[in-house]
Predict the structure of Sensor histidine kinase NatK-like C-terminal domain-containing protein.
Amino acid sequence: MDSQLMIENAVRIINMVQYIIMSVFFCRMLCCFLPKKEGYLMDILIFISGVFIPSMVIDPNDMFNVTLAFIWMLLLMLFCFKGSVISKLSVTAVIYPLIIALNLLISEFSLRLWLAGGKSFLLDMAVSIADGLIHILFWYFIYRTFVSKVRQASRLYSQNTWILLGIICLASLVSITVCTYYTPEETYKIWPCAVACMVTNIGSLYLAEYFVNTIRHEMEQNSLKLQRVYYEELERNQAEIRRFRHDMNHHLLIIRDLFDQGDKEAAHAYFQELESQIAPQNRCFCKNSVLNAVLNSKYNKAADSSIDCFFRIDLPEVTAIDQVSLCSIFANTLDNAIEACLKIPEPEKRKISLKARIAENGFFSYEIKNAKINAVTVEKGKYVSDKKNRSEHGVGLTSLQRTVEKYNGTLRISYDETSFTVVILIGNSL
C-alpha cells in the first residue's frame, strides 16, 4: 500500500513537471500570434492558463469542460494579449479546436486502453504519464514548426486577413463543439471529426505562411517601386546638371558681353534669371535619402500642378519603421492629396500641408491635410474614390491601414466640405 502511494505521488510530480513544460510551449505559441500585455500579473495568468487549458480533460458529452475551455481561452485572449478584438477571436478559433480535438482523442484512447488492460493500477499510472508526454510533444511540434511563420504573419496581418483566418477555422470550432456536446453512443464515430479539425487548423497555420509570403512579395514590389522613384529622381537631376553645364558657356558669354557694353543692370537681371533656373530642384526634406527622393518626386508633381505644398518633416535617418512602410505612408497619402487637389478648378485653392516627426518618447506622428471639393463616399466602413477603375478604389487607404496595423498604430481620418485630414500615430519608432 505504501509503495502504491509512493508511485502515485511520483506520478503526480511527473505530471506536474509535464504540465509546466507543456505550459511553456503553449504560452510561447500564443505569444507568437499576439504580443502579451506587460506586467507580472499578466505573466502569471497566462502561465496558469497554459497549465490548465491545454490539459483539460474532455470526455464525450462533456458540456461543462468544453464550455469552460472555450470561455477561459476567450477571456485569456481578450484580457491578457494586445491587438484587435477580431485578431483575438481568430486566435481563439485557431487554438480552441486543437485543444478540444486533441484532448478528446487522448481521453478516448486512454480510457479504452485502461479498460482493455483490466483497469490495472500500473497501467493507469503509465497512461497518465503518456498523456502528459503526448501533450508536450504536440505543443512542442506546433511551437517549433510554426513559431517563425506565425510571428511574421501576425505582424503583417490586416484586419481582413484575421477575419479570413477566423472564418476558415470557425467550421472546425463549431463541428468539434457540436460533436462533443452530442456524441453518439459509438464514440469512435467522432474520431474522424476530431482528426479533421486538427488537420484543418494546422493547415490554417500553413496558410499563414502563404499570406506572409504574399504580403512580403507585395512589400518587395513596393520597395522596387520606391527604388525606381529614387533612381529616376537622381537621373532627372543628373540630366538637369548636364543640360545646364552644356548651356553654361553660352550664358557666361552673354553676361560678359553685357558687362563689356557697360550694361550692368541687364547683366545683373540676366544673372538673376539664370540663378533661378539653375537653383537646385532637389530639396532636402529629411535625412533618409530614399524617402527624400519620394518627397521630391511628389513635391515636384504637386508644384507642376500649381499645388501649394507645405512640408515640415523632422525624422532621423534611421527609424524602427522599415523604409518601405515609411515611404508607403508618405507616398500613398500624398498621391491621394494631389489627386484631390487636381479636382479643384482654382489653382490658388489647391493646398497640401504635411507634418511628420518622431518625438522624444519615440512616437511617430504624421498629419497630412489637403484641400478638396469632391464628396467623400464611405461604403461598409471603407472610403471609396470616384475613379473610373473600380479595382483602384480605396487601394491607397487600404495599404495605409495595413501598414499602420503592422506597427499597432492608430489611423484617424476626418474631413469636411473643404478639407481632408489623415493623422497617424505609431509608438516606439526609435
Observations:
- The radius of gyration is 32 Å.
- The first strand starts at residue 308 and ends at 314.
